[in-house]
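Readers of this paper often ask what the protein records in our data store actually look like. Such a record has a labelled line for the sequence and another for the backbone structure tokens. Nothing more is needed to write down the fold, since each code stands for a local backbone conformation. The remainder of this section carries one protein's record, kept here as part of the documentation.
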Amino acid sequence: PKPVIDSIWPNGGPTIGSTEVFITGLHYQDEVQLACSFDGIITEGTYIDNRTLSCHSPPHLPGIVKFKVVGDAYAGDTSYQSDPMEFLYYNPSSIAFATPRRGSALGGTPIILTGTNLFNTTALRCRFGKNEVRGTFISERNALCISPPSTDNSVILAVPVTVSLNGKDFSPEN
């Protein structure tokens, strides 16, 4: 039987590519050379088990593309492929600054991040050092994050703040 996709996570990534995408579904076979097709661009798949595989997204222009699981694509076989799902490519986000620049080590400080290429998504996350919290979209240039408690015993600690629009790929540290 042909492969079936139940879900892909994340279902989008930045245009620079390299997002590791996990695909769950049915009929994934280890003996078939599994791959993923992002708008017809084939990338190598990694078999995890008969219900799970992973692939890395290639670079692509922004927009929604068709995503498929394909088998033996390198040999030219097009019979073993899933029905398409959607994958969203977006311009990478960046954070220029955070306001206020300091908060309590106990956490709970509302922080406004100002940057570029933000959009409204339930996957919006903010990372303070190594601690992730859910973010709230305000505008294409602003997001709100509540600072988490510090995991360091130090009272004064500077941490980089980054943002993710898919819960996986974070903006560069600034």
Summary: The chain has a mean pLDDT of 92. The longest strand covers residues 41-49. The CA atoms of residues 35 and 44 lie 5 Å apart.
